[in-house]
Amino acid sequence: MSTSVAENVIPPKGKPKWLRVKLPTGKKYTQLRGLVDKYDLNTICTSGSCPNMGECWGEGTATFMILGNICTRSCGFCGVKTGRPETVDWAEPEKVARSIKIMNIKHAVLTSVDRDDLKDMGSIIWAETVQAVRRMNPETTMETLIPDFQGISTHLDRIINVAPEVISHNMETVKRLTREVRIQAKYERSLEVLDYLKKNGAKRTKSGIMLGLGEEEDEVIATMEDLRKADVDVITIGQYLQPSKKHLPVKQFILPEQFKKYEEVGLEMGFRHVESGALVRSSYKAHKHIH
Fold first, then answer.
1. Angle 217-229/187-199 helices, nearest 10 degrees?
2. CA quadruple 111, 155, 121, 194: dihedral positive or negative?
């Protein structure tokens, strides 16, 4: 590891103080939590125990996962189950739209597991969900955090055609670590997806990476440069945390100063928004990324 990075990371011996999260509070959070429990609404905010749940809900933003909770891929960082997914629920678009209405969400982030088992890879349900949300919640803005759909343009076009305010696809890590971290994904393919989206009508594109998996500073900056070459508008950079002992271990905790440095570098590169911090996740401050 280069000297500059070594000075701004610490070995993983217990979580550092800047990763300690305050319990979510506030009137808006309490109200939404009650609605989620009462109507059994499925948000990834709660199922993923997101550290920013209170802050995001307070700002009227929430994330919903579609196409079930079993993924066809087995990424080394992800806590979602891998296996044979359930049958597609064609009523899901209306259910998600109704949840957003009940919660009075101003900005909704939609995401999903990978569905490589389906001929359309889930892209039809994706498009129908965006349309259902629009019908039922015309004032709600949306970000779609999509899989790579194996880079197939027909599937990507379905997302572009329904015109969410932001289309996001995460790189997750640097090129060298992609094979280990995202076993069935490809670094170049993800870049090609983001490039294709922008060149074919996406209003705004976005991507995210996790740190602490053994990457070096120059690799992170190279990834940021690759994303700018693909004309990506928004980048999120956060600390990787191990979901369980079965997952990839945390190699280092990145210091706040290093996250700040990446933020400054990213803004100099020309990203419209750079969210860089230990607790930053893909949908952090997502409502600001439409501007």
1. 30
2. negative
The single residue listed with the structure tokens 């074919």 is 200
Residues facing 71 on adjacent strands? 82
pLDDT in single tens digits along all 291 residues of the chain: 444 455 566 556 667 888 876 666 677 777 777 777 776 766 766 655 567 777 777 788 888 889 987 776 666 566 567 788 889 999 999 999 998 998 899 999 999 888 889 999 999 999 999 999 999 999 999 999 999 999 999 999 999 999 999 999 999 999 999 999 888 789 999 999 999 999 999 999 999 999 999 999 999 999 999 999 999 999 999 999 887 788 888 999 999 999 999 999 999 999 999 999 999 988 888 999 998
- Cα–Cα distance for residue pair 51/142, rounded to 1 Å: 21
Give me the half-sphere count of Cα atoms (radius 13 Å) on the Cβ side of residue 203.
14
pTM summary value: 0.89
